[in-house]
Amino acid sequence: MALMQPSMRLLETVGVWTDELKSASAPLETLRLVDDTGSVFAAPTVNFSHRELGEEPFGWNIPLDRLTAALQAAAVKSGVSMVDAKVSAYRSHSGNAQVTLDTGITLTAPVAIAADGRHSVMRAGAGITTAEWRYEQSALAMSFAHSTPHRGVSIEFHKPTGPFTTVPLPDNRSSLVWLVKPQDVDGILELSPDDLAARLQLEMHGELGLITDVSTPAVIPMQGLTARKFAASRLLLVGEPAHVVPPIGAQGLNMSLRDAAFAADAINDAIRMDEDPGSDKLLAAYDERRRGDVVPRQAVIDTLNRSLMSEFFPLHAARAAGMTLLQHVPPLRKRAMLEGLNPPGPLPRAMRG
Ligand SMILES: Cc1cc2nc3c(=O)[nH]c(=O)nc-3n(C[C@H](O)[C@H](O)[C@H](O)COP(=O)(O)OP(=O)(O)OC[C@H]3O[C@@H](n4cnc5c(N)ncnc54)[C@H](O)[C@@H]3O)c2cc1C
Predict the structure, then answer these.
(1) Distance from the first to the final alpha carbon of the chain
(2) Tell me: the pLDDT tens digits for 169-198?
(3) pLDDT digits over 285-316, tens only?
């Protein structure tokens, strides 16, 4: 999972960015966009280097299982009680958030956070509706070994079915997210390990040399979702209950961690000022702040994704023009990098370092 600078500072703040986790992860130093659409309006290759912004890499690619385990251990260490159960219902009742678990237990608090994924039971219980849409794409996620070192470069090949993105891992390995047409998934899954490695090598035009040791691909259907409110009925939405985006530009979990950090700030501030942490005022401020970060980002990701799949030539021309400007106008490139990394306005406290 590629996490950018602000998210990395949050990991440092909560004490999980240890040498052990670092040794399982790889820094992201350059992001390279390669037009591989075959369109007559070919766009130039664009390189974003972290050196244009400073010494720190853009972020790190961290194995998700290791990250989740480290976060869980840190939560337990800081005194969080873990309950192994599913939420079966949510409601706001008598000035409290009320969460019912499938064990039959009901928990109450002045405010609750829904982080129960895209099919959130808690969001539905708060009466929050969603806008949802599907893409004619499935993501294939896997990792592989390669003979040519990646040198900290993540490469996003723009193909007619969507991006094919390699992200560095330690020891000459990279992770890959490949967006394909749903009808092509079975054919790819049926390839033998050697044929799959050869296919990846071909798709990358040999950029990473000889490809070997490809892990079994995971298949994820692509969809988008935006909650019509990011907070209501004493509930703050964090992560996929609020927003789902295709895996382009490593935005999903980075936005989710910002949700969590802003929610923590809002609740802590209310408690410190002896105010109700589930008040309508606090929920409205959270909704406005998170919407301002998430909605424009979803629009950019959606436009880029659809422009690749579209056969409408003016869209190809517009994308090529945009990439040409990014490659040749350094201030524009710098601005795009800063906007890719940071939300508008001040960062939440845990991400300031
Ligand atoms: C292929 C791929 C690659 C990606 N790469 C990146 C990347 O490099 N960088 C990045 O920033 N983002 C990336 N993303 C996006 C990122 O994975 C998501 O944004 C992120 O996982 C969202 O986390 P979440 O906790 O909201 O949802 P989830 O990961 O779906 O977690 C939801 C959790 O809620 C639990 N749950 C569900 N229902 C209940 C219930 N009723 N009661 C209790 N618990 C419940 C589930 O068991 C689960 O543990 C990628 C996505 C994909 C598909």
Answers:
(1) 21
(2) 999 999 999 999 999 999 999 999 999 999
(3) 999 999 999 999 999 999 888 888 877 778 88
| Binding site membership of 116 for ligand 1 (Cβ less than 6 Å) | yes
Which amino acid residue places its CA nearest to atom 52 of ligand 1?
247
How far, in Å, is the centroid of ligand 1 from the Cα of 124?
A: 18
Atom of ligand 1 nearest to the CA of 177: 1
pLDDT class of 117 with cuts at 50, 70, 90 = very high
- Written in H, E and C, the secondary structure of the chain is CEEEHHHHHHHHHCCCCCHHHHHCCEEECEEEEEECCCCCCCCCCEEEEHHHCCCCCCEEECCHHHHHHHHHHHHHHCCCCCCCCCEEEEEEECCEEEEEECCCCEEEECCEEECCCCCCHHHHHCCCCEEEEEEEEEEEEEEEEECCCCCCEEEEEEECCEEEEEEEECCCEEEEEEEECHHHHHHHHCCCHHHHHHHHHHHCCCCCCCEECCCCCEEEEEEEEEECCCEECCEEECCCCCEECCCCCCCHHHHHHHHHHHHHHHHHHHHHCCCCCCCHHHHHHHHHHHHHHHHHHHHHHHHHHHHHHCCCHHHHHHHHHHHHHHHHCHHHHHHHHHHHHCCCCCCCHHHCC
The pTM for the full model equals 0.95
51 pLDDT tier (thresholds 50, 70, 90) = very high
Predicted confidence (pLDDT) at residue 244 exceeds the cutoff of 80: yes
